[in-house]
Design a protein that fits this description.
By secondary structure, the chain is of the alpha+beta class. It is built from 19 helices and 33 strands.
Length: 663
């Protein structure tokens, strides 16, 4: 299908380029929006589903649902449509890698990063849930981590509004490793199903492993319903109890025991990132866990099959999120002890604890105090708070932070809310703001294709972004003509470079200026965006100073040069020498040469009567100019010159006749 789709234009606007991904229902391509000149992602439904009305309706629903969601943490949907038998959705083109690939490549994430990713996903889900849309397939494969570290939630392919009735069965859509127990059982789903899935995503991000695994989808689904997860700290000791409590509360089997809204979860994660551990402890303090449900035996099936509903029942008892996760381990550890020994030990420990507590209360009533919360205070405010307490100042250090503003406390030791002895030193870390990016050299993108430009920018640790296409007489259509940051200049790693593709040469209609005066023709062409070049040529038909012709005509490159040819008037022609001709012969010769004739008369002792004595001018003159000839009246006296003139005048002559008598 990839080869067939390549270079195809969908909806008369979106050119399909290379394949970048595939899923169970669709294939995703990189594409180009020819109208806006920007790179987009184009999701096309697989042909085997295009003819299925229910799948087509689900595909259309995805586009409509996702297009309504506006969040910096949700991939934007620009357009959708059908071209022939192909259903397609046009989306924002994302650069980066999915969270699953990142975990596989780098292993478990830092606790702060886990909370940051979780808080952004929670904000995305909060937007969706406010539109009554449940994602139902939250998993790290659907979380794109962008070059700046922020995430975007993708693929609302099985997202469904609460009032949707597209499916008539209760088969589970989603991925077994991340679905909630109620989704596995085919029960009605609410926003808390996404919160459960997000809990598993954070669990995997914090430990590098999913909490439940098996040989097939059914065995994993059974564990989702029946088993408690190992506490994340058992897999990764660097996971602190506060983050562990948040994750395990998300993963409660009973939806009522989880965070009830994505917004509630976001605020708890924000408290965690800000160091407000007392607030986190309060939010994750108690919940309820189900007893082990009774399961009907199931035969293993291939993991690609639908997961049937799994029935569960049972009652809960109060436990903290961490306690319930460790219940199984504690049960095994103490199962072999006899009840008598347990009772004896318990009574003994209780008596000792009571004695110690009473002694401590009597002797050290005020020996400890709660550590104040210094998060997001300035250094001056934090030190003043320490001075006003029963504690002492510790060290003050600085460090970079992408989440805490410069000049504010980003961390403290010991943590806020802990009970510590009077006089304990409290050390603080002041944020220096985001760590400055490294300097990189911007590559030259001119004449590169969009994919080549993206690769060159990624290699330089820069982010590419397609801008509006531009006209260019130097670069072929579809290649990079301009870039926002000059080639070979210095930029910061992670900066965005906008590149603009060529639309080819821009043309415009050339005004017809033939017959215009030179100045008028020049102004008309320049006002239309053209340069003007002037040539000159004689013309027998066009007045001097007017345009004879122009080149090119019709349309031409905007800003190009138009050449106009301006008339210098008629060309010079050789004047026939008619001296000695008869008057009629001279008249005829000059007429045929294109000249007017003016005839005058004079006596001449040497030139016979009726012949031309002289002419003026001689040599050459412009065609149509007048040549004056002098015709002899002979040498006799008393000749009536005027009469001769009257008799010899040419009808084409506008000159006057005269005669001179020679003695």
């Amino acid at each position: 299908m990839g080869e067939m789709m390549s270079d195809r234009v969908l909806g008369g606007r979106y050119t399909v380029q290379d394949k970048i991904g595939a899923g169970g229902m669709a294939v995703v391509y990189r594409g180009l929006d020819e109208v806006l000149g920007r790179t987009v992602a184009i999701k096309t439904m697989l042909p085997q589903y295009a003819g299925d009305a229910s799948f087509a309706a689900r595909f259309k629903q995805e586009a409509q649902a996702a297009a309504a969601l506006q969040s910096p943490y949700i991939v934007s949907v620009y357009d959708w449509g059908r071209d022939g038998d192909t259903y397609y959705i046009v989306m924002e083109y994302l650069r980066g890698t999915d969270l699953k690939s990142g975990i596989r490549r780098h292993g478990a994430l830092d606790g702060k990063k886990v909370a940051q990713v979780g808080s952004q996903i929670a904000q995305a889900l909060s937007v969706a849930h406010r539109h009554d849309i449940i994602h139902r397939d939250i998993k790290p494969q659907n979380i794109m981590v962008q070059p700046d570290g922020n995430i975007k939630v993708m693929d609302f392919g099985i997202a469904r509004a609460k009032n949707s009735h597209l499916t008539t069965d209760n088969s589970v859509l989603g991925t077994a490793h991340y679905v909630s127990p109620e989704q596995t059982q085919g029960k009605e789903l609410g926003p808390t199903t996404d919160i459960y899935s997000l809990g598993i995503v954070m669990y995997e991000a914090a430990t590098g492993k999913v909490p439940f695994d098996g040989d097939d989808a059914i065995s994993v689904a059974l564990k989702q319903v029946n088993e408690q997860p190992k506490p994340p700290s058992q897999l990764n000791p660097s996971v602190d109890s506060a983050l562990e409590g948040i994750i395990l509360k998300c993963m409660q089997k009973d939806p009522e025991a989880r965070f009830q809204t994505a917004d509630e979860l976001y605020h708890v994660l924000r408290d965690y990132l800000a160091g407000r551990m007392q607030a986190v402890s309060s939010a994750t303090a108690t919940t309820a866990i189900p007893t082990t449900p009774v399961m009907a035996p199931l035969q293993p099936v291939n993991s690609t099959q639908s997961i049937p509903r799994i029935q569960a029942n049972g009652h809960g008892r109060p436990r903290s999120a961490t306690e319930q996760a460790r219940e199984k381990a504690q049960r095994e550890a103490h199962g072999r002890r006899r009840k008598l020994v347990l009772g004896t030990v318990f009574v003994t420990l209780a008596l000792i604890a009571a004695i110690v507590a009473i002694a401590s209360l009597l002797t050290n009533r005020n020996a400890t105090a709660s550590v104040p919360n210094l998060s997001n205070l300035t250094e001056e405010q934090a030190l003043a708070t320490i001075d006003a307490s029963v504690f002492e100042r510790g060290t003050v250090k600085e460090s970079y932070s992408s989440t805490v503003a410069s000049g504010l406390v980003m961390d403290q030791s010991p943590d806020a809310g802990l009970e510590k002895a009077r006089g304990t030193q409290i050390s603080i870390v002041i944020s220096k703001g985001p760590e400055p990016a490294a300097d990189v050299v911007v590559p030259d993108l001119k004449n590169l294709s969009p994919s080549e430009a993206e690769q060159a920018l990624a290699k330089a640790n820069l982010v590419g972004q397609a801008g509006d296409s531009v006209y260019s007489s130097e670069v072929e259509v579809g290649k990079v003509a301009q870039q926002s940051i000059a080639a070979n200049s210095t930029a910061k790693a992670g900066d965005t470079v906008t590149y603009q593709l060529s639309k080819g040469v821009e043309t415009a209609e050339v005004p017809d200026v033939t017959g215009y005066g030179e100045e008028s023709a020049r102004n008309t062409l320049q006002n239309s965006g053209f340069g003007v070049s002037v040539q000159r040529s004689s013309s027998n038909s066009v007045e001097e100073g007017e345009v004879i012709s122009q080149s090119p005509t019709g349309t031409a490159e905007k800003g190009g040069t138009i050449t106009i040819t301006v008339s210098t008037g008629p060309a010079d022609k050789n004047i026939p020498n008619v001296v000695g001709y008869s008057e009629d012969g001279a008249q005829s010769a000059l007429d045929n040469a294109g000249f007017l004739v003016n005839t005058t008369y004079a006596t001449s002792p040497s030139v016979p009567r009726g012949n031309v004595i002289s002419q003026s001018p001689t040599g050459s003159a412009k065609a149509g100019s007048t040549v004056t000839i002098v015709v002899s009246t002979g040498s006799g006296s008393g000749t009536n010159g005027a009469g001769e003139a009257d008799g010899g005048s040419s009808g084409k002559s506008s000159g006057t006749s005269s005669s001179t008598e020679t003695k």
